[in-house]
Amino acid sequence: GNKGQVARLELALGLYCSSSEGTDPSSACDTVVRQVDLNLPEIQADTVGEVALRKALDAFAVLKEPLVVHDCGLCVAALGDWPGPYTKNANDKLGTEGLLKLLHGVTDRRARWDDTIVYVDRHGDAKVFGPEEVCETEDGPLSCFPRNRSYSGEISATPPLKWARFEGPERALGRVFVPTQFGLTECLADVSEEDYQRYRREAPSVWNEFARWWGRRGTEESAA
Question: Which residues are catalytic?
Answer without folding.
Answer: 71
